Amino acid sequence: MKQFVTREHEIEPLPGLPGVPPAGEVILWQGRPSSALVARHLLKVRWIVGYFLILSSWAVLAGLNDAQPVGGIVFSVAVLTALAGVLIGMIELFAWAVEKTTLYTVTTERIVIRFGVAISMTLNLPYRQVDGVALARLGEKAGMIAIALLPEQRLSWLIQWPHVRGFRFARPEPSLICLPDADKVANVLSAAIGQYRGSRAEQPRIIMQETAGSAMPPSVVAAE
Prior knowledge:
Helix content is 37%, strand content 24%.
């Protein structure tokens, strides 16, 4: 494939696709990341809430210990609360924008990631360039799916963020992040890759190893 990334999709022949699919290509699944999961797991909003709670508690205890006026203690807590509200509001707004501007598509031939809060882009990942995919759970059904590309394929980690596996800078892995139905998507994707390779006489064997947590250790849903 000559070009992974396209920047123009304001006029889409089909939602989420940069062009009309070739004859025989079928859309198997389309979906978006959950803004709640993006805020919680990707942007760590709960950690930030906890951090400001600790700061507020410390302000109260320090004020009481130093015999400060109640008004001064209340003012300090109010300032911290306001700062927390602004920061958390910005995080939630960004998470909402990520959900609204992202559309993932799995077809019989490829994975397409349309994304971009500030600059709209589309990643086009045909299965012939895919080395494997990893599923990391974020709960009972939710999770993230990272896509490992063949060694000769290179994509910028920064351009793909947040739709990329964390801390894989040398070999960035595009990712379907914060999916509420990750199990379903993993099954659809593994079946599609298997059918694609099987139709090309590769006789694949599908392997699916699930992992817990958001760190995405190197488990594989792939064809051998």
